[in-house]
Design goal:
The protein has one domain (1-35). The chain is 91% helix and 0% strand. The protein contains 1 helix and no strands. It has one helix spanning 2-33. The chain is rod-shaped.
Length: 35
């Protein structure tokens, strides 16, 4: 039970990190286009 929970937590952290990186890339891209 605990193993499944920690696995789920790891997956959600990974998704959060990927989403955050993607948001940073989109933001940087937007700033580049605004120049």
């Amino acid at each position: 039970m605990a193993g499944i929970f920690s696995g789920k937590k790891a997956v959600s952290m990974l998704v959060y990190k990927i989403y955050h990186i993607e948001a940073e890339v989109i933001k940087a891209h937007g700033e580049y286009n605004n120049r």
